[in-house]
């Protein structure tokens, strides 16, 4: 993805079609994976703090995820079709990190 390569995320409101929203969804999956791979496992098992930078990234990813859902409604996109496209385009993503693998399983299983 060009946006992922440049580090400039695509905002859902800047997208005018369902395929573009699927591309934003791919960016989100990649972004969440990047963040969780940087987290210390102690964050999940104790009160270890999340770094401010990673916290800001998570907040932004969450915001863009909500915006994506809203934009799908505005454009009349079928959420199942968009999700299927996201899954197809992220099928090759892998992680050597345990939490990263759990995230990918969660995304793929839709749980």
Throw out a few tags for this protein.
mainly alpha
Written account of the structure:
With 111 residues, the protein is mainly α. It has one domain. It is 69% helix and 0% strand. It contains six helices and no strands. It has helices spanning 2-6, 18-38, 42-45, 52-75, 79-89, 98-109. Helix 2 packs antiparallel against helix 4 (52-75) and helix 2 runs antiparallel to helix 6 (98-109). It starts with a helix and ends with a helix. 23% of the residues are buried. Residues 1-6 have low confidence and may be disordered.
Write the SSE topology:
Elements: H1 2-6, H2 18-38, H3 42-45, H4 52-75, H5 79-89, H6 98-109
Helix pairs in contact: 2-4, 2-5, 2-6
What's the shape? globular
Q: Any idea what the radius of gyration is?
A: 14 Å
Q: Stretches where pLDDT falls below 50 for ≥5 residues?
A: 1-6
Overall pLDDT level:
89
Name the helix and strand elements from N-terminus to C-terminus, one letter apiece: HHHHHH
Largest sheet: none
Strand content: under 5%
Q: Structural class of the secondary structure composition?
A: mainly alpha
Span between termini: 26 Å
Number of DSSP-assigned strands: 0
Number of domains: 1
User: What is the helix content?
Assistant: 55-70%
Helix segment tally: 6
């Amino acid at each position: 993805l060009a946006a992922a390569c440049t580090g400039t995320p695509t905002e859902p409101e800047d997208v005018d079609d369902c395929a573009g929203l699927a591309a934003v969804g791919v960016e989100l999956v990649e972004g969440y994976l990047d963040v969780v791979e940087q987290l210390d496992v102690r964050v999940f098992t104790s009160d270890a703090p999340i770094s401010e930078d990673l916290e800001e990234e998570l907040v932004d990813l969450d915001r863009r995820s909500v915006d994506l859902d809203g934009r799908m409604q505005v454009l009349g996109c079928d959420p199942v079709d968009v999700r299927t496209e996201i899954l197809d385009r992220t099928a090759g993503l892998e992680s050597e990190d345990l939490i990263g693998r759990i995230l990918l399983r969660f995304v793929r299983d839709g749980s």
